[in-house]
Design brief:
The chain is of the alpha+beta class. It has a single domain, classed as Dimeric alpha+beta barrel (Alpha-Beta Plaits). Helix content is about 25%, strand content about 35%. The protein is built from two helices and six strands. It has a four-stranded antiparallel sheet, covered by helices on one side. A hairpin with a 2-residue loop joins strand 3 and strand 4. The two termini are about 15 Å apart.
């Protein structure tokens, strides 16, 4: 079964400890619902730097990454269905890109 990366964009950090607990509960429930399909729960990430032939830019890239998860699924369509339950989508504040991991 192939692996897929869920790349998160947007979202935000909780403003209070209570909100943080609620957000973490939603993520843990989603991970729990996916069960063994979760290969790597991933993590939030900080602002990135963009490295190019011209040097290093402190711009976060064209579409800054806010986190990632790796899952296994039969097809990209099945992985997209799993991604639809992601808490970052709540309130329309974030998006999930789904990309296959190619074995090398």
């Amino acid at each position: 079964m192939p692996n897929f990366v869920f790349a998160y964009h947007g979202g935000g950090m909780p403003e209070t400890p209570e909100e943080g607990e609620k957000v973490m509960a939603a993520w843990n429930a989603w991970y729990g619902a996916m069960g063994d399909a979760v290969v790597d729960g991933g993590a939030p990430v900080g602002m990135s730097k963009t490295v190019s032939v011209d040097g290093v830019a402190d711009n976060g890239g064209a579409n800054p990454l806010s986190g990632y998860t790796v899952v296994k699924a039969d097809t990209v369509e099945a992985a997209c269905e799993m991604a639809k339950g992601c808490p970052i989508l709540d309130g329309g504040k974030g998006t999930v890109e789904v990309a296959p991991v190619h074995e090398m």
